[in-house]
Amino acid sequence: MENNLASHGRWTGKQFVVLAGIWFAFLISFITRLSWATIMPSAIDSLHFTVQQGSNYLTAFYIGYAITVLPGGMLADKFGYKKLLLAAVLGNLVVMGAMVFMQGYWDGLVLRFVLGLVSGPDLSACLGIITEWFDGKKRATATGIFNTCTSFGLTVINLYAPSVMVHYGWRAALGVTALFPLAALIFAWFALKGTPPFPQQFGVKESDGKVETESSMQRLRKAINNRSVWMLAITGLFATGAKWGVTNWANLFMVKNLKFSLVTAGSAMAIFGITSVISMVVAGWISDHSKWSRHVWAAIFMAIFTPTIIGFALTPHGNTALLYFWTGAMGVGAFMFSTITNNLSVEVAPADQRGTVSGFINVFNQVGSFLAPILLGQILASSGSYVASYLIISVFPIIAVVALLFVRESDAQKNE
Q: Which residues cross the membrane (predicted)?
């Protein structure tokens, strides 16, 4: 009966529990990675670091993360999505606990790098678990709800860390942060118990009924011979790069170029966060309840991004109402498509390659996220114009839309 309800009709109670488990697990990944940015002003003074040294801690995480997103996905295909997710959460717990006691620059830098390494498998594992528990008619909605934890993580860390730092110091703030992966590990352990209705496949079923197990490298070779995988990788490179490029620069642009106050810029980004969360859930629901292919919806949602970047860049000085409108619209454009592209990263893959494929695509997402802010800085340095920087990067989503038009979901997965 449970499996039947999982395939048709309403969600089961177990599906809600599973989704809560992976949502919490991935949320803590964002909390731990963002923790250093929040406590950095206090920590670098205490440890006598330069601002550049403190910034290196941010970079160290993303280098480690980029290194393991693909191997992490491959390991998830080999050993299981649940095992890799729990291992990633445990790794976060150990590293964050160790950071409370760091004494110098190098031990902290190594720990941030290791935090990135252990976090690499988390997204592939979570997306894989969604395919185990949700059929094709509910999967995008589940992915949209799951994606909201990325925006929520920034809110959570800012709710407690500054207050804890003021009263007890930055080490205490890191200690409190270490409690999140502990709680997530316990909760996810129990939430993910049970047999899913669409269990992970560790091999390929041949025509004679035998299951042929492939090596991790065989899976990888098959993954990179898939045109849709490459198109999604290109999409991630340009669209995800544009998303985090404009997001990371938004406050700076509003304060330095548009001359709004820090408070107004913060309010605008709060609206940005709210619209991004709502749009990700709406995108999943639309995709699940439409006869149109997911890649078509992803292209439509992504096409919204370019005009919102342009509108935001051309906001008149002093017009707060338009600032709030375009910032909110840009939240929709920047995040709405990600529900569908995340979903596609596992749906274009054969059942035994989902972790490998999502990990491969996520490598390009991370490269885009890393390079886009650098590109914006280079354009600003050469042109002297914030607006020109934004207008140039507004072309990126258009390139991603073209790439999406060449994505094809397999008939087998569309009929799941």
A: 16-37, 57-77, 84-103, 109-130, 142-161, 173-192, 229-246, 258-284, 296-315, 321-340, 360-381, 387-407
* Predicted pLDDT of residue 183: 95
CB 108 within 8 A of CB 49: no
Q: Given this model, what pLDDT does residue 207 score? A: 53
- 130 class by beta-carbon count within 10 Å (0-12 exposed, 13-18 middle, 19+ buried): buried
CA distance 219 to 202: 11
Whether pLDDT at 198 is above 60: yes
Mapping DSSP to helix (H, G, I), strand (E, B) and coil, where does residue 304 land? coil
Q: Which residues of 53-90 are buried (b: 16+ CB within 10 A; e: fewer)?
A: ebebbeebbbebbbbbbbbbbbbbbbebbbebbbbbbb
- Confidence tier at 9 by pLDDT (50, 70, 90): low
Q: Tokens 């042929």 appear where?
A: 212
pTM: 0.81
Residue 117 · residue 239 · CB < 8 Å: no
The CATH architecture one would assign to domain 217-414 is: Up-down Bundle (1.20)
